[in-house]
Structures are given as structure tokens and as C-alpha cells.
Amino acid sequence: MADTDAFFRTEMLPPKEPPLSQRGVWKWMHENMFSSIGSGALTVLGILFVLYVLASAFPWFAHSVWHADSLRQCRDIVHKTWGPGTDGACWAVIRANWNLYLYGFYPMEQIWRPNLAFLLLLVALSPILFSRLPRKMIWFSACYPALAYWLIWGGTLWISVTIMAGFAVGALVLRFLGRIAGTALGVGGAVLGAVLWWLFVAAPVATALADIVPLHLTFVPSDKLGGFLLSFITGMCGIGFSLPMGILLSLGRRSDMPIIKTSCVLFIEFVRGVPLITLLFTASFLLAYFLPPGTTFDLVLRVIIMVTLFSAAYIAEVIRGGLAAIPRGQFEAADALGLDYWKAQRLIVMPQALKISIPGIVGVFIGLFKDTTLVIIVGLLDPLMGISNAVRANVAWNGVYWEPYIFAATIFFIFCFGMSRYSMYLEGKLKTDHR
Amino acid sequence: MSLAGEQPKRAFRLSMLVYDSRYRAYTIQVLFIAALAVLIGWLVNNAAENLARLGITPDFSFLWNRAGYDISMKLIHYTNDSTHGRAALVGLINTLFVSALGCVTATILGVVAGVLRLSKNWVIARLMTVYIEVVRNVPLLLWLLVIYAVFTSVTPSPSEFRGTHPKAEMWFWGSTAITNRYVALPSPEFFRSLGNVDLGIFKVSLDLLALIAVIVAGVLVQRALRRRATRIQEATGRRPATWWAPILCILVPVVALLMLLGFHLDDPRIRGFNFSGGILAPNSIFALWFGLSVYTATYIAEIVRAGILAVSKGQTEAAHALGLRPRRTMSLVVLPQALRVIVPPLISQFLNLTKNSTLAFAVAYPDLGATLGGITLNQSGRALECILLMMVTYLAISLLISAVMNAYNRAVRLKER
Q1: Is the CB of residue B361 less than 8 Å from the CB of residue B370?
Q2: Residue spans of alpha helices (H) in B237-282
């Protein structure tokens, strides 16, 4: 009887390795690339396509030339190094026209000014983009527009200072009058005070200060601006000014006051209904008709105004979507707490609405930045067509197509892709619900 | 005891205009209207003064003057003896034409890309991600310029098609020639044409109308047959075969009509240095069409992806539990629900595409902005009138498209109580 016991196994067999097709790389490939005949065919086609693109583009990139004075010289170098009949990229065109691409026809000896403005832009943006930085830095961000205007266009600093001082006057009036007579009168008084300051006090004060302390930079007219500098100026101004304007428009569109609501709806629907190009046409051809005879102002400024109006209408619609997504209870809770309209908007409604609309807002910003290339239609030198045409007008670089396009595309891609990634980071950071 | 309704009635005081929220709204609106009126009055006054100083009065009669320029692509009859108004009409039709083509291809491309980006196939999903991210993060203007540069620099010139042993070869059995200036396509012709009907502004081919009528009638008959099949299925549980309906109701009548009219294709032939016969479509329309489609498709792809992801997983699982196969799950359960999420943003993408077609200036496509807002504006010097007309036209197109699409949206919307 006891003999049979010897047939029993005393320990478990170790599990066998899964078959080759069910583990590691093979399993992954089986599941993700060749799960069915159709999927496998698509995979093969996709890989062949990638290989084809790489095979046709690689030699061109590998034969790149970085130092040359003309396209002809570029081609000679390629032919000498890699044999006749070969083709290669001529990045020397970017190298030779680097300043043209970045700054347009900005005076060479003044180039430190846009450079400094760009560096300061990064400093001014950082407290807005990253909440961990000291909050005091936001004051620098608030002063930055005036500083940047002075740096890029030149003239006397005191014009910028007195314009900014108008805002300070408004804030002071709001603080004191608001305490005595209530917010409503305070806001009215602040607007009135600022407008009066700009109309009657600002110019004499600026002149007087300029006489005492002449902080003066060489004036650079707008037609010298071009390339990515111009794209950046229009893009950043559009982004900076259109967000507050879009918020106001979206609030106006949801307002109970019929006249304000109708005006906002008309404005938003009109701007969204026409292409940006017609607005740019208006800026360049028509705006002069609507100003007092004899006055004219800067084309770049006119374009910035139009771009701002354009994207403000789109942002208003995005934020309206965010506002619509907030439950009614939030508005009612704000009322129950006794908050007035602006406090309720600032403390309860807008933080939630803006959080929901971040992806949409950044989408509008990306579109706006890409649309800055359209300024070519009114004769400004955008980095895509304007500068590339200027480069090609030079006999040495006549006939170069791909390199400028690839260069401009890369820069635009970096900034737009960066913006969309930042919006995803912000979304993740502000996500406080536990779904 | 005092009741809430018996509050002492206070007399109206002037300060209530600011401090009483019942009256404050009126104050704000009156002030707003006043400010707006002052601003508009100022602008109009300036405009009147400027126009008087320049000695011009707003006047649209220039639209009836001779235009005197040629347009490279025209879908209605136009010569340089035609009026500016007709040139504007040609431009408008070109705008609508390229926008319609673009909307169709962008939707197809976008749906394919959006679905494939969600595919389990790693290679395809990554490829689609790269396509979408690269294309939508670079300005449309650049894509238009690149596509146009490819079209003009890679393709042969028309003269290379000459001779018995031409350097360049025609495509599609010698019917289509892609040159660096235009694409020569075969044109449909009829031996026994029905002629045209003159609508005053433009002529409409009766052959085309007959064809459309036959197709519409065929679709209607086919739908009636399908409804009948459903009725029989509901009554008896057995569905009669309807696979032959589209062939018999649409294909056969169309072929019969074409044969009756003597349909044939007129191939373009090289004569001298250029092609003649057929349709010579300028490269600009292809560049604009492809550019708009490829660019807008990336946005549509993201919309489609979001729409499919918005359908909760439980819906798919429930459909599978009911025994529906994956394809029927997609077409009967997922897509109808996803469509409700997809359609509203899709409308705004169609609108964007139409507005983006103004980038035609980059490839010299003669759209409304190039005729009315370009040559006509420069020749007549009537900037105010031209830009006003352009804006009104685009506004009308936008409102029309959104009205049509909103009606469709209402039709597919979830019917709630």
C-alpha cells in the first residue's frame, strides 16, 4: 500500500514559459501591429511609407551646406562633395539672412533692443505661467507692455510712463471714490479719471519730464519691423489684450441688460462671420476714413487692434461655453453670500469658467499666433511670405524654396506645440475634481 | 406685526439710479448707449468729412463698369469685357466652389484620421498623431505655399508634352496632364445635348439638371423600397433582399440617361505649346483645395476623436452584451451618439474652412478677395464699397452655413422630454 505513495508529486511543477508569440516583443507586436490581416497590411503600408519618406528626405538633409554666399555656391559645394547630380539642403540661406528672418529690417546696431525686450518678456511671462514664483513679480509683468513698447519703437520713455500712469490714476480713484461712494460710482470715476489724464495731462507731463530727464532711444518706424519679431509683437499683443476683452464680451453676452447684450452679440457674430483678411483690409484701407482728417497712426498698431478684436470675439465664445457649463447653484450661492456682481464674477464664476475653457482659449491663441502670418496681405513683412520673398529678391538666393519654409515651419511648430503642451499641463494642475 | 408686502413705499430719489440695483441697469444702459452714440457719431462724422474732402461719395455704380481683366478660373461665362459685378460673382462662385470641395474632402480625411488615431494599431495611431500635430501647429499659409511650390516646381511644363516622344507623360490612359501651370482634365461632353437654360445671370446645363433629377428620383425610390422592406420585416420577421435596389434604381437609370445623351469625355490635346480641349484647371485651385482639406482635416480628426471618446464605454459593452458585432456596434450605437457631440464643432470647422479660403491670395486663386477685394478695388479705388460688399458677402455665407448646419444639428439631437 505504501509503495504507491511514491507516485505522488510533492511539489508543484514550475509554470512553463508562454510560447514565443505570447510574450515580450512578439506578443506586443502581435497585439498592436498584426492583430488581424487588415491591421497587419496597414502596419506594413505605414512602415513602408515612413521608410519611403525617410529615404527620399535623408540624402537631402545629409548633404546640408551651412556656409555659402549664394545658392549657386551651395550647389557647387554639394556637387563637389557628393558627386554631380546630387541634391542637398542649403541652410546657408538661413544663416546669411538670419537677422532678416528674426527682425526684418530693424537697424542692425539697435538689435539689442528687441533682444532685451524678448528676454524681459520671458521674465514678465514667468509669474503668469508658473504659480510657484514670487507673486510680487506680477507688478513687473503689469509694467512690461510700456517697457516693451519703448524698447522696440524707441522715442522717449516718458510717453510710456505717462500712459501707464493713467491706469494708476484710475486705480487710485477707484480705491478712494469706491470707498466713499460705492463700487459703481468708483468704476465710473476711475474710467473718467484715466481718460481725463490721457487727454489733458499725459502729453504735457511727458514733454516736461522728457526735458528734465531725457531717456531717449532712436525711433524705429514700424515699416522696419518684420520677420518673427513682427509675428511675436502682433501675437503677444493680441493674446494679452484679447483675453480681458473676451471675458468682458462673454459677460456682456450673458448680461440681463438687453442693450448691452445685443451690442455684444452683434459684435461677436459680426467678427466671427468675416475672415480676418477683410478686417486687415479694413485696417489698411478704411481706418483712415474714420479718423479725423489728417491724422494717421501706425499700420502695425492698426493691425494689432484688428487682430485683438478678432480673437476677442472667439475667446468670448469659448468663455461663454465655460460659463454655460457652471451649475446655476454657483451663481445662486454667490448671491446668497451677498457678493455684488463683480465680486461674484471674480471670486466664484470666472475661476471655474476659465478653468473649463483653458483648452479652447489656448486653441484660439495658437490660431492667433499662426494668423499673424496673414499681415503680408497689408504689406507687412511676415516671416513666411514677406521675408522669404525679400530673400528671394536677392539674386544670390533666387530660387530657394524649401529651406525658408522648413525653417519657419519649425519655429511655428515649436511655439504652437509648446503652447498646446502648456495648456495640457495647466489643465492637469488645475484639475481639482476627483472623477 | 408688519408683513413683507407692507413695506413703506419709498419715494424715488436720484441716488437710486446708482445704488438701487433695480434702476442701476437703466443708468448703465443709458450711459452705454450715449457713449456708443458719441463714438459712432464721431466715426461717421469723420468719414463724411474725409469723403467730402476727397470728393468721393459712396456709390456702387462702378459694379456695372467694364472690368477689363481676365480671371484664370471661371465657372460662369466671363470675359474681360464683363462688368466688375460679374467679376465679383465669378470670385464668389470660385470661393463657394473651393469651400464646398474642401468641406467634403476635409470631412472624409478628418473622419479617417480621427478613427485611425484611436486604432489599436500602434504604427497607424502614431502616424496619425504625427500628421495631426505637425499640420495643425504650422500656419495654413505655409502649407498652401509648400503645396503650390510642389505643384509648380516638380511638374513638367506643357511644352514637354509635345512631339511623338514627349518628355512628360499624361496620366490615366492619356486623359489628364498635370503641368506646372494647370491641370488638363477631360471634359464631359454630350452628342445629343439638351442645351442650356438661361437664368439671366448664368446658364445652367439641362444635361446636368436631368442627371441630378434622375439621381434624386432613384434615391427616393430606393428609400421607399427600404422602408417597405422594414415594414415587411416588422410584420413577418423576414427581410426581403434589397441589395439590388441601389443598382436598379440609381446606377441603371444614370447609365441609361448618359447613353441616351451620348456622353463622352473630350480629352485635352497638346496644340503648339499649350493644351486645348478638355478642362484646363489652374494649379491654384488644387493647391488651395488640398491645403484647406489637409489642414482642416486635422481639426476635424480631433473633433471626431473627442466625439467617439465621449460615448461611454458602457454603451459599447452593452451593445456587445446584446450580441451586436463590432461594426454594427459602431454604426448603430457609438456613431449616432458621437454624432451629437461632433456636429456643432464640425459646423464651425466648415465655417473656418470657408473663411480660410481667403488665403487664396497666396496661390493666386481668383476668389472673392482676389477679384472684388483685389483687382476691382485697386482699379476702381472704391475701397469702402468693395470691403463692405466683401464683408457682407462673407457674413451672409457664414450665417447661411450655420443656419443649414444648425437645422441638421436639431435633427440629430437627442430627443429629450
Answers
A1: yes
A2: 245-246, 252-261
- Model ipTM over 0.90: no
Categorise residue B374: left if φ over 0, alpha if ψ from -120 to 50, beta otherwise: alpha
**C-beta atoms of A366 and B356 within 8 A:** no
The residue ranges of every structural domain in chain B are 16-54, 58-154+284-417
Contacts of B174 (CB under 8 A, 6+ apart): B267
Q: Decide: residue A399, CB within 10 A, 0-12 exposed, 13-18 middle, 19+ buried.
A: exposed
CA distance A190 to A175: 9
Three-state secondary-structure class, residue A396:
helix
Q: Is A221 left (phi over 0), alpha (psi -120 to 50) or beta?
A: beta
Residue of A nearest to B389 (CA): A278
DSSP code of residue A355: H
Question: Do the Cβ atoms of A290 and B32 come within 8 Å?
Answer: no
Could you tell me if B236 lies within 8 Å of chain A, comparing CB atoms?
A: no
Q: Which three cell numbers stand for residue B8?
A: 413703506
Rounded to whole angstroms, the Cα distance separating B306 from A161 reads 48
Query: Is the pLDDT assigned to residue B242 strictly greater than 50?
Result: yes
Structure confidence at residue B5 (pLDDT): 53
Q: What domains can be seen in chain A, in order of their start residue?
A: 36-96 (no CATH), 111-116+224-430 (1.10.3720.10), 156-217 (no CATH)
Compare A236 and A9 and report the one with higher pLDDT.
Answer: A236
In CATH terms, the superfamily for domain B58-154+284-417 is MetI-like (1.10.3720.10)
Tell me if chain A has a CB within 8 Å of the CB of B65. Answer: no
Q: Is A399 helix (H, G, I), strand (E, B) or coil?
A: coil
